[in-house]
Design brief:
The complex is a heterotrimer of chains A (349), B (343) and C (329). Chain A has 15 helices and two strands. Chain A is an all-alpha fold and 349 residues long. In chain A, strands 1-2 form a two-stranded antiparallel sheet. The longest helix of chain A is centred in the C-terminal third of the chain and has 30 residues. Chain A is globular, with a radius of gyration of 21 Å. The relative contact order of chain A is 0.18. Chain B has 343 residues and is an alpha/beta fold. Chain B is 43% helix and 19% strand. In chain B, the strands form four sheets. Chain B has a six-stranded parallel sheet, with helices on both faces. A four-stranded parallel sheet of chain B has the order 7-6-8-9, sandwiched between helices. A two-stranded antiparallel sheet of chain B has the order 10-14. The longest helix of chain C has 33 residues. Chain C has a two-stranded antiparallel sheet. In chain C, helix 4 runs antiparallel to helix 12 and helix 6 packs antiparallel against helix 7. Classes of the chains: A mainly alpha (349), B alpha/beta (343), C mainly alpha (329). Chains in contact: A-B, A-C, B-C. At the A-B interface, helix 3, helix 4, helix 14 and helix 15 of A face helix 1 and helix 3 of B.
Chain lengths: 349, 343, 329
Amino acid sequence: MTTQAPVARTYRDYGQPLWRRLLISRASAVIGALLIVIVVSSFSVKAFAKPITMTYLFLDIAPILLIALPMTLIIITGEIDLSVASVVGLSSVTLGVLHQGGMPIEGAAVVALIVGLLCGALNGFLITIVGLPSLAVTIGTLALYRGLAVGLLGTTAVTEFTEFWTDLAKSKIGDTAIPSVVILIVVLAIVFAILLHFTPFGRGVYAIGLSPEAARFSGVRVERTKFILFLLSGVISALAGIYYTLRFGSARGDNATGLELSVIAAVLLGGVSIFGGRGNLPGVLAGALLIGTLASALRLANVTSDVINVITGTLLIASVVGTSFLAWLRTRRARPGGVPRESLASAKS
Amino acid sequence: MFNKSKRVGAIAALAVSVALVATGCASTGGDDSGEGSGDANLAITFLPKNLGNAYFDTSNAGGKEAIEEFGGTYAEVGPATGSPDGQVSYINTLTQQGVGGIAISANDPTALCDAINEARDAGIKIVTFDADTSPDCRDLFINQAEAAGIAKIQVDLIAEQIGDAGKVAILSATANATNQNAWIDLMKEDLAANHPDIELVDVVYGDDDDQTSFDKTAALLQTYPDLKGIISPTTVGISAAARYLQTSAFKGQVQLTGLGTPNQMRDFVNDGTVTAFALWNPADLGYLAAYAAKALIEGDITGAEGDTFDAGKLGSYTVGADATVLLGDPYVFNKDNIADFNF
Amino acid sequence: MRVVGNFFKARETGILLALVLVVVVATVKNPSFLFSPDGFRDLLLTPSILLLLAVGQAIVIITRNVDLSVGSILGLTAYLTGRLFIDVPGIPIPLVFLASIAFGAALGLINGALVAFAKVPALVITLGTLYAYRGINVLWTGSDRINSSDMPKDFLALGTSSFLYIPLLTIIALIVLVIAGWFLYTQRAGRELYAIGSDPAAANLYGLKVTQRVLVAFIVSGALAGLAGVLYAARYGTVNSQAGVNLELQAVGAAVIGGVAIFGGSGTVWGAAVGAFLLVTINRALPIIGVQDFWQRAVVGVLIIGAIVLDRVLALRQARKLMEMRDDS
């Protein structure tokens, strides 16, 4: 991926009143689309407008929401992690194999998290210390971790799990239809939001995405930051793997195959630029909800999961192409006047 | 990024088009999950192990015929590959949609139980056919034949074809499949007890995927050059193995038998690649499953031993032990009779 | 003498040696791996499909892009092949070849247009088309399959017959390999692909038609995947909606292992071809050596990582050597 020079922000970008900045933003647009989808589906899809829909929706997209959190930060720094789905599978298998061997779920879960940490560490090591491109490394580790998962378990599935934990994975908050896992997601989302938007670490993340050299000279510890992000990605993916296993009650080597597409689609749809340096968490969460709700409504309408994949793939392409197109429009508008109004360097965002 | 009205316009357009797509797909699909006629909810959905499998196409068709006979609503859904969590998602969706009954061929005996019990709590009747779940998470199991009988007939066929001595291997479906695993265990017992000169060298899994089964057959023949016979208790496996054998140097040297559909196997039987194989009529299986579901939904039976219900053109059936209904006995196909069948 | 020296130092030779080693070990364990009619045929036949995908992938990677949708393109064209035989009885086989290649090229064109014109990273585009094309494939297939009885016997014979002991499909794949290699090495347009991959900005400033070349690279990748789809249908005889799943990863792996650097600008299609053979042969050799073939994907992953680490180490050494030369002069 070649990085492009960034757009320099002028006072005009910040001169808008807060309410306008909140309302006219990528996150709001996605939330708007989400609302439209919900309203339309409630009328046209039978059985959509029931509380149980929300239950299954959150149960289904919980892994995506969880993994999208560190993935957002990684993509903002200009890297990518394609191995997340394989880490989910590997942690799932670890949980299954250990539990089948007699270890209680608590212990097995801790080991699974450590496995995820190690996976993230390997990614981080190869990318920050050896200096390899993250695309290549994570394609390799995607194969390696998935291969380990499948190798450990073959094509069998471990399906005997302590009922307490499988029930917990699917339990709901009190009497509502909202699954308990949402609490976990909200807590982690707040943690990541604070990390990204309110700490120097987070500002360093943006800086690295806009220009790694400038960030380095500004005192940001680029390698350490990236390493930490990949560690986080590994651990959270392992956590998602534990949840996935308990939710479906089945640990299999090929669990969650293809999950990375949904995560990346949610992140990119939510306004994070693939070139790095821009994006925020509310947009990503809205993007994940949009994709999940759309999939849920279509499934209820008996649309097969392949069509849903086509739509996800197309949405992914459309959102990125659309962003690129708009940026191109902006530079075209600026050029005739000589010195561009909006940018000090010709750029694609 | 914050104040570009054009950008907002573009994104709004994207949102509207997304919503339109959703509406379009939704409204065309929305009519399918219909309601049953009369008081009972006779919307019955078939959920086989996976789609794209000729065996299940036939059983689904049998189910469809039955459902249309008694005026219910038929639907078929299924994952593309034989995995348990794929089926769980569909069971969840069906629970949301509030169908009357689901006929499942299970990819795993226990992984589906939670989802199934949620469905049963919502009033949906669950009938398993072909591959069972554990008995406490279904209302009825429609068994095609006694497991022991299915195992024995395949062992008998291979023993006859290889002269009751030599090495054999088994090419199965997915590693978790309840039915294949039950048959394989019984086959091992039968071989140990009655065929001391036959050695079972390996069990490989083709995952009910054609290409995988094809490649696994090649690997088997490669790894065990003195293999005499292959048993494949799955229609996908036996047809893929037959196709490989047909163009291989081992044709005629290695015997192949198992469970296959006449249409898929006809070429191979006629040119001598396969001598004989067994099956039952999957269409009848699906037909019986649909009628059983109907009986459960309408309250005619509860799945207790001794209940009887009417199954259209197949006559009347009685529920046996463990809430199981037996369809019949397996049937052997060979060169003499394969032309008479069309499924 | 320099030529021989270069030959021995070349990355591709190392991979070739690894391949020979694997074959030797497997044959020692089980002579029929190599020395039986089936064994020799399968040794050459099964990798041929991956070879085509790897060659196309190499061409795309050399331009500093990647094409993750080739598996889905293969699935679509394999199904198209079957459908043509069923719906148009008596259709001549060469026409089916042409139609599938054209269809694959068209799908590649979509990828290429989005990457070249919209300037969006190929990773994202082809990730999206990977799922979009697969979804369309499953939608089109429904729950049907193409059975071998649906296709003419001559076509299926292509899949298994040989000419002078070499399977026909392998011959087709090798011809494509030779053409691709010749083009990349001797033709100006081919050399320009390397330039674009090495430094796109410099290539642009130099006046190379970057957009056009990248577009063509993706079209070629799609067309080769289309051809691979036809060969798949001939080889396996049965096509369902899952044909070609996960092959894109193997194709990228084969190219990377064969020496095509993921950051573009170097590598050869010959290396990618050897990489393809190595991957498939390892897969087939594992059960003979006694390793469960479940571990195959892990082996692929280790090889990919090993290959890129090796590339990086070599690149660093090269850079250091150049700096020393500069300092010395």
